[in-house]
Every structure is written in C-alpha cells, then in structure tokens.
Amino acid sequence: MALLRAIIHIKVPVHYLNMGKKVAIVLSGCGVYDGSEIHESSAVLVHLSREGAQFYAPDVEQMHVVDHVKGQPTQEKRNVLVESARIARGNIKDLATLNVKELDALIIPGGFGVAKNLSTWATQGKNCTISKVVEETLKAFHAAKKPIGMCCISPVLAAKIFPGCELTVGQDKECEKWPYAKTAEAMKELGCKHVNKHVDEIHVDVKNKLVTTSAFMCNASVHEVYDGIGKMIKEVLKLA
C-alpha cells in the first residue's frame, strides 16, 4: 500500500525543458464530448516534445459530464482542471496563473470542452460568451504578438475575440466527411474570413499570428489529423 500511495503521488513530467520554445497548451477537460479531444491533445504534445510545453486549464466546473459509451449526459459533476490533469499526467497549472511574459506561444486543442467549458458556443453559437480567463489569455498573447495555434473547434474562440481574422475549421459545405461545416458559416457571420482547407493542411493569418487546422472537424483518420496538427505546430514555432 505504501508503494501504491507513492506511485499515485508522483507527478510524471510531460514536458522536456530543452533550449526550445516555451509553449502553453490550454485544455478544456478530458474526452471529446465534454472536454479536450484526447488524440488532438496527444498529437500537440508529441510534436512539441522537443520544446518546452506546459499544460494549463481553467479551475472551473464542467458544463456537464457525458458518458462516452452512450453519448449521453450524466448527473456527475467534474472539474475542468482536474479532468485535464489526466491528459497532462498531473503536470498542469491553473490557467489563471499563466504569465504570457514567460511563454513564447499558445496552443488550444479541440474537443467539445472548448464549446462547453471555455465558452458557451455549444448552446449559443455565434452569440456565445467566452470564459473571462480564456479571453484574457488569448488577448494577452495577441497583444504581445506571440503566435496562437488552434485546431478543430477552438478557432471559434478567435473568431469571437478577433473580428476580421483569417481562420479555418476545414470546409464550409456540409457533407459526410465534413459534418460540422456550418461552423464556418457562423464564423463568417462574426466577420472572419474562413479559408477552406483539407484536414492535413493549415491556414496562417500572418497579421494576427493565428495558425489553424481542422483536425476532427473532418471525419478523418487519426494519422491525417496528426499530420495537420504537426504542420500547425511547426508554423507556430516558426512564428515564435
């Protein structure tokens, strides 16, 4: 039992403090339906493993908890920071403590947690509000002219905060391969320029230092999403 307790309390490092860039990764929980998309989050970390990555998440209650087998909400209550720690292997900080001066770039993976826990996009669409700490974080990186990488649904945060910016969530015509294409239309209505891209492509808004890729907004294979995220990370590091 003593050994088990010791193992439980070990925080396994998930970032490698080399001489590379220091990148903040903001999570929104753990699991595609109510938190961060796990494959996207892992892809981000793998592509950043030779740099200096640090996970953050807001210390707030989730909008709700979804049974990922049944795809239905449950009566459970869970905390976004605590759930995000599962992906970060325990090495995570409260987003409220983030200091933009100590970091070179920001990455926000997708997952419905972005639309449910970082904002109210899931229930209000383009009329949503964004979590105060999330909005302040995005504005701080933007004001400091430090690059921001966003994949899957997370570009909607930039669409809401930075009108006129250029973004992609993939394609703007709904079909079996692109089931969430209406998101692009909502972003256009917010005054943004949406650029159609394939899942393994990225779009770079040089003026605003925003790098976006569609990830699982497309009904794609994991390796295709991984490749697109890799290109996003490479460009973010180039801009940092």
Automatic annotation (TrEMBL):
SUPFAM superfamilies: Class I glutamine amidotransferase-like. NCBIfam families: PRK11780.1 (NF008747). This is Uncharacterized protein. Gene3D superfamilies: 3.40.50.880.
